[in-house]
């Protein structure tokens, strides 16, 4: 088949999948690479790579990878606190730093593009690498005077703007995040906003210019979540509300939708994706920024664990129900482009500048997809093990940060399946098969950790799964080393 004809066929498959949910379910983007990685948020990395940010046991981990899976560096640190409090969604800052990392109420930091620990910012990083953040100056034993503080790049404090006459300290000293809109205005909220709070009638939102100079205040029990193209999204009385840049109400979503927990902007199309929680599963919604009209809502019964928006307006939503997880790609017109599953909940999504999509799963697997090439599901399942000589001593922390330990089982299955595995040392009685892993149809990967107590020497990795209702078993001879 000529190259031109091949391209025409692939283009036809992509176009048909965009208009046919049934075909989208039978085809998937081509998997370019899979590798062990820190499980968590996915951000653009240095030198055209990718960075993942997450936690491993009690440690906070940031790791950078090339697009072929080779690791550039890893920064792992246990915060200097006992009962740690607070946390914010990590971001790629204008100066190339990743942060804030760690519990923002106690000990937090950022990571430089070279993988070094540097000062973090719990607010807005300015164009000249300063930091605008909300904090307080202690007024007495129990209360503080809230203030927006500007810290310069060299660490000096150049401005403190207090809320004179207002005493308030957030729980655990975890001050709310100051957020910017896309026009450069900065918003911060102060005061307890829950029903029955003693100072609820004094809670307020303040808008500042890019230098930290206050512009307008409004007394309202709202908690800012994310800046919009202009204005800010906040939570008030268990509902999401959009405030204009003068802090007047623009619109309010129904209380039944719950409060906003994460936002991904698509301002060129005057919309955004919002993860919202109302006591049940976290739902994802595509919402018009100007009017509040809801353009799409994730299906009932599914919980959304990650969202992202691509340059062309494709929305990516990670959904889980009954232990099965997948990512849906939704075109700007609302049609389903493709669906891809994983062996474990997806917790981070990024559309790379080259158009590839990177997905991080809770099992510590990073998957790189090429959405421009859709492939059909296989007629028969295949399994492959990345290595046969495996170093032991692999807790999940070591597996994710030291890729030389443990192994990865790569699968390509025609249908969803339940998979179990066990390691049987030579000359020993086989143990019971291990924890059940729900694996999707198509390409996926499962981590195979080898614990420090595992017997060294020749062993057998036995894998049991189902292929269209038929039980199958595959044996992999392996050697375990110290």
Describe this structure in words.
- It is a single chain.
- The protein has 482 residues and is mainly β.
- It is 6% helix and 50% strand.
- The protein has three helices and 40 strands.
- The strands form ten sheets. Strands 34-40-39-36-37 form a five-stranded mixed β-sheet, with no helix packed on it. It has a four-stranded antiparallel β-sheet with strand order 1-32-31-30.
- A hairpin with a 5-residue loop joins β30 (346-351) and β31.
- 43% of the residues are buried.
Question: Key terms for this structure?
Answer:
3 helices, single chain, 482 residues, disordered N terminus, five-stranded mixed β-sheet, four-stranded antiparallel β-sheet, 40 strands, mainly beta, Coagulation Factor XIII, Chain A, domain 1
What are the low-pLDDT stretches, counting only 5+ consecutive residues below 50?
A: 1-23
Please identify the oligomeric state: single chain
Mean of pLDDT: 90
Going by helix content, strand content and strand pairing, the class is mainly beta
Cα-based radius of gyration, to the nearest Å: 24 Å
Shape verdict: globular
- Biggest β-sheet: strands ordered side by side in the sheet: 34-40-39-36-37
Helix content: under 10%
Number of helix segments? 3
Share of β-strand residues: over 45%
Alpha-carbon distance between the two ends: 50 Å
| Largest sheet properties | 5 strands, mixed
**Number of strand segments:** 40
Please write out the topology.
Layout: H1 3-19, H2 21-26, E1 27-36, E2 41-44, E3 50-56, E4 59-65, E5 71-77, E6 91-92, E7 98-101, E8 109-111, E9 117-118, E10 124-125, E11 131-138, E12 144-151, E13 157-162, E14 179-180, E15 186-190, E16 204-208, E17 214-219, E18 222-227, E19 232-236, E20 239-243, E21 249-252, E22 259-266, E23 271-277, E24 283-288, E25 294-297, E26 303-309, E27 315-321, E28 324-330, E29 336-342, E30 346-351, E31 357-361, E32 365-376, E33 382-385, E34 389-391, H3 396-401, E35 407-413, E36 417-425, E37 437-439, E38 442-448, E39 457-467, E40 470-481
Parallel strand pairs: 34-40
Antiparallel strand pairs: 1-32, 2-3, 3-4, 4-5, 6-7, 7-8, 8-9, 10-11, 11-12, 12-13, 14-15, 15-16, 16-17, 18-19, 19-20, 20-21, 22-23, 23-24, 24-25, 26-27, 27-28, 28-29, 30-31, 31-32, 33-35, 35-38, 36-37, 36-39, 39-40
């Amino acid at each position: 088949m000529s190259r031109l004809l091949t391209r025409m066929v692939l283009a036809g498959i992509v176009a048909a999948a965009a208009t046919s949910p049934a075909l989208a379910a039978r085809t998937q983007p081509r998997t370019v690479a899979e590798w062990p990685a820190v499980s968590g948020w996915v951000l653009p990395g240095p030198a055209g790579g990718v960075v993942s940010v997450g936690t491993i046991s009690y440690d906070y981990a940031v790791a950078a990878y090339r697009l072929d899976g080779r690791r550039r560096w890893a920064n792992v640190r246990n915060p200097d606190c006992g009962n740690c409090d607070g946390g914010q969604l990590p971001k790629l800052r204008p100066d190339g730093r990743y942060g804030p990392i760690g519990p923002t109420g106690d000990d937090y930091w950022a990571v430089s593009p070279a993988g070094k620990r540097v000062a973090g910012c719990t607010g807005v990083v300015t164009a000249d690498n300063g930091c605008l953040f909300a904090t307080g100056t202690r007024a007495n034993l129990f209360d503080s005077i809230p203030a927006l503080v500007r810290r310069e790049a060299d660490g000096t404090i150049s401005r403190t703007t207090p809320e004179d006459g207002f005493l308030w300290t957030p729980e655990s000293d975890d001050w709310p995040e100051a957020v910017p809109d896309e026009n450069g205005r900065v918003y911060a909220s102060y005061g307890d906003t829950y029903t029955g709070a003693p100072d609820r009638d004094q809670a307020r939102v303040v808008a500042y210019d890019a230098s930290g100079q206050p512009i307008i205040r409004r007394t309202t029990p709202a908690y800012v979540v994310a800046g919009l193209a202009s204005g800010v999204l906040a939570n008030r009385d268990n509902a999401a509300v959009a405030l204009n840049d003068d802090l007047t109400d623009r619109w309010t979503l129904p209380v039944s939708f719950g409060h906003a927990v994460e936002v991904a902007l698509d301002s060129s199309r005057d919309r955004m994706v919002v993860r919202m929680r109302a006591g049940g599963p976290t739902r994802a919604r595509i919402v018009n920024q100007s009017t509040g009209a809801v353009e799409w809502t994730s299906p009932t019964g599914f919980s959304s664990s990650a969202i992202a928006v691509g340059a062309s307006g494709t929305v990516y939503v990670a959904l889980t129900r009954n232990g099965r997880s997948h990512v849906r790609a939704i075109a700007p017109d609302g049609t389903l482009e493709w669906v891809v599953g994983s062996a474990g909940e997806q917790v981070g999504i990024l559309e790379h500048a080259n158009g590839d999509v990177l997905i991080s799963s809770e099992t510590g697997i990073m998957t790189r997809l090429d959405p421009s090439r859709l492939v059909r599901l296989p007629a028969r399942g295949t399994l492959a093990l990345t290595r046969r000589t495996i170093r032991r001593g692999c807790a999940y922390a070591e597996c994710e940060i030291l890729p030389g330990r443990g192994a990865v089982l790569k699968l390509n299955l025609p249908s969803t399946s339940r998979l179990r595995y066990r390691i049987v040392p030579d000359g020993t009685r086989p143990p019971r098969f291990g924890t059940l892993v729900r694996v999707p149809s198509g390409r996926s990967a499962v981590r195979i950790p080898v614990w420090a107590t595992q017997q060294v020497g020749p062993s057998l990795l036995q894998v049991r799964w189902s292929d269209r209702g038929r039980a199958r078993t595959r044996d992999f001879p392996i050697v375990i080393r110290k």
